[in-house]
Design brief:
The protein is of the alpha/beta class and 278 residues long. It is 37% helix and 19% strand. The strands form four sheets. It has a seven-stranded parallel beta sheet with strand order 3-2-1-4-5-7-11, with helices on both faces. The protein has a two-stranded parallel ribbon with strand order 6-13. A two-stranded parallel sheet has the order 8-10. The protein is globular, with a radius of gyration of 19 Å.
């Protein structure tokens, strides 16, 4: 039996699990709370609480390993289990990273060969973590995710309740990826393993104000108010996203893994979310 140990079994990994479980995979997933673990068990996942439970028995049973855990100064998974992972008999290892590792490129295109030059602490931590995972010598697949959206993480609720704001920063674009396309890419990599680095994003980097305007039109509501970037109230995390401007290429997921995106632009993605959320 193929067994996936999914450490930090959150939004993206759960979308993958919905694809794998019907195919006979066993999935061992971790949550930070017992309540979260109970919710995972209800979906057919063998759930553990971590940090807390000893993951070594699960690691010994795993054929595949996926980690979605964000690093701090060090990667917490490697801090707890680095030597054991290095020695484990794994057919496949996946690490969910971020396109923040590329830094700021004034809206120009980047791909997997672009030198890593993060401009945020979050991006720098990911670069360190990628290097630490690569040093283990396992068959590592690094997935650099663009901005994640999907059911429950789309713009419609904020547009409906009037809290959405179009933050105007001329020339600013973001690359995005629908959560089901993350699962699509991960499943392709599991079924057609090819260790390496993959950008996971759609085909159409777009400005955030365009996405919100599109969502408003789909709801037959007026455009959300426009606010200049300099005047906008944002969390430090949100402001860090606006500090970087780049367009991310996704050629490798198509040429190497054979992926065909379900939602090649945010337009199709928003339509799918609205169909689910109503």
């Amino acid at each position: 039996m193929k067994t996936l140990l999914s450490i930090g079994h959150g939004y993206s990994a759960q979308a993958l699990a919905r694809r794998l479980l019907p195919g006979g995979w066993r999935i061992i997933g971790t949550s930070r709370t017992e309540a979260g673990a109970a919710a995972l068990r209800a979906t057919g996942v063998d759930a553990l609480v971590w940090p807390g439970d000893d993951l070594r028995p699960a690691l010994a049973e795993a054929t595949h390993l996926l980690t979605s855990v964000a690093p701090g100064e060090a990667d917490p998974v490697l801090a707890a289990l680095g030597p054991e992972i290095a020695e484990a008999a794994l057919d496949w290892v996946g690490y969910l990273s971020t396109t923040a590792v590329y830094g700021h490129h004034n809206g120009d295109w980047v791909d997997e060969t672009t030198p890593l030059a993060p401009t945020t602490a979050r991006g720098a931590a990911r670069v360190r973590a990628e290097g630490a995972w690569a040093a283990l010598g396992q068959p590592l697949h690094i997935f650099r995710l663009a901005g994640i959206y999907g059911p429950g993480r789309g713009p419609f609720e904020k547009v409906r309740d009037g809290s959405a704001r179009r933050i105007l920063k001329p020339g600013q674009v973001f690359s995005r990826i629908h959560v089901e396309d993350i699962a699509n890419v991960l499943e392709a990599a599991l079924l057609r393993p090819h260790p390496g680095v993959y950008n996971v994003c759609d085909d159409d980097p777009a400005s955030p104000e365009d996405v919100l305007s599109r969502a408003a039109r789909m709801l037959n509501l007026p455009d959300p108010p426009m606010v200049a970037y300099e005047d906008a109230e944002m969390t430090p995390m949100a402001r860090s996203f606006y500090a970087e401007n780049k367009r991310v290429r996704n050629d490798r997921i198509k040429s190497v893994l054979g992926v065909r995106l379900l939602y090649p632009t945010y337009r199709e993605g928003l339509e799918a979310i609205l169909a689910v959320e109503g």
